[in-house]
Each structure stands twice: as structure tokens, then as C-alpha cells.
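Saturday, quiet lab. Running sequence design on the C-alpha cells for the scaffold JK sent over.
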């Protein structure tokens, strides 16, 4: 059983579970405002520098799970496609093309913003957005689109699946009570020190 599953991490698929996905055949199309748009295969991603970050995924529904998330920095992807300086938002699309969400370029290029394929050293399974998901620990979890098949570099904002249904466009994390999945789902208040770790690099 995967670590995320062992921790009883909730599985959210607003658009319905995508079923079994082909890891080796996975491709992510990166398009929009860039000089070298292209497709990144599973092999391409594996050949790029791997970044591992200790960070939490925290949902507006208040579960939080901490671990080492591994993958490729969105910044490295943007460099690879020669993103234009005019890019202001990065949009992620999930496999069925129903779920999408966009984040400001300032957040997309931060150190812990990844196209993640690992949690605690294990490949992500479908339930948790494998083969490759967005991981944006600085914002509520709905910005961390799962099973990403397309990334669009844009010069404007488009509200995504949850944003058009009333979640905030900014998705700023707010301190408060959380359900700590690393501690059996115990409800506790996140401390100031931990809080800083969530929102800073
Ligand atoms: N494709 C897709 N991505 C998604 C979601 C979803 O419903 N569909 N839910 C989002 C929300 S609200 C959260 S909190 C996290 C939850 O990630 P998990 O299901 O791996 O715990 O995924 C985000 N990414
Ligand atoms: Mo969420």
C-alpha cells in the first residue's frame, strides 16, 4: 500500500476517477506563450533534474498531509519550453480535460511548485494524481491538479473547475484547525512555525 493511502489521505476526483492510467506512456503537452512548445513524456520528465521537497498538501476541506514530494520544478519546464516573459498565469489540465486550475507565474516558479510524480520515494498512484500531478504547497490543494496532461502558459487568468464554483481564485492558505493525516487525522491547530514552512520557501 502506498504511503499516502496508509495515511488515509482523502482522494478527491470531482470529475470522477480516471481509472487505470499508463505511466510509461504518459505525456504532458506544454503550450501557450513560449518559443519551444512541446510534449514531455514520462521518460523526458525522468531525464530532467529531480527536485524533492518536504512540504504539505493542504485542502480547503482542512486535511493536510506532509511528506517528500518529488518531481520536476514547473520553473524547469518553463525554461525548457522557453516561456515568454509575458506569461502571467500557468494553467494545469487534468486527464479528462474537465478539471483545470491556474496559478500566478510568481507561484508557479517558486522552489516547491512541481509536476510531481513521487511521494515519500514511491511513484504516485492514480488515486493521488499519478503518474504526474501539479503540486503547489503554497496554496489550497485545489490548485494541485491531478494527473496532468496539459500545461498552458498564459498572459491572463481563467477560473478553473472549483474557482467557477466559488472557491477563491487566489487560494491563499489560511491558518486554523486542520485534520493532520500524518497523525491519524487528529484535529489540531497548525503552529506559527509550521505555518511559515507552508507558505515560505
Ligand atoms: N483532477 C483533479 N485534480 C484535483 C482534484 C480533483 O477533484 N480532480 N481535487 C483537488 C483538491 S480540492 C485537492 S484538496 C487535492 C486533493 O488531492 P488528493 O486527492 O491526492 O488527496 O487535489 C486537487 N486536484
Ligand atoms: Mo481540496
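Result came back. Writing it out in full:
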Amino acid at each position: 500500500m502506498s504511503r499516502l493511502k496508509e495515511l488515509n489521505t482523502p482522494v478527491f476526483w470531482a470529475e470522477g476517477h480516471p481509472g487505470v492510467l499508463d505511466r510509461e506512456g504518459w505525456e504532458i503537452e506544454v503550450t501557450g506563450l513560449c518559443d519551444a512548445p512541446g510534449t514531455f513524456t514520462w521518460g523526458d520528465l525522468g531525464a530532467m533534474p529531480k527536485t524533492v521537497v518536504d512540504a504539505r498538501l493542504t485542502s480547503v476541506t482542512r486535511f493536510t498531509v506532509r511528506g517528500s514530494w518529488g518531481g520536476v520544478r514547473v520553473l524547469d519546464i518553463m525554461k525548457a519550453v522557453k516561456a515568454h516573459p509575458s506569461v502571467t498565469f500557468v494553467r494545469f489540465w487534468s486527464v479528462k480535460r474537465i478539471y483545470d486550475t491556474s496559478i500566478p507565474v510568481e507561484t508557479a516558479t517558486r522552489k516547491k511548485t512541481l509536476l510531481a510524480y513521487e511521494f515519500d520515494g514511491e511513484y504516485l498512484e492514480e488515486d493521488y494524481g499519478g503518474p504526474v500531478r501539479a503540486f503547489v504547497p503554497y496554496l489550497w490543494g485545489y490548485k494541485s491538479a491531478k494527473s496532468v496532461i496539459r500545461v498552458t502558459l498564459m498572459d491572463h487568468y481563467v477560473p478553473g473547475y472549483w474557482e467557477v464554483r466559488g472557491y477563491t481564485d487566489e487560494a491563499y492558505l489560511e491558518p486554523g484547525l486542520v485534520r493532520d493525516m500524518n497523525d491519524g487525522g487528529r484535529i489540531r491547530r497548525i503552529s506559527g512555525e509550521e505555518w511559515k514552512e507552508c507558505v515560505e520557501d
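Notes for JK: The chain has a mean pLDDT of 97. The CA atoms of residues 99 and 161 lie 5 Å apart. Ask whether to fix the surface positions before the next round.
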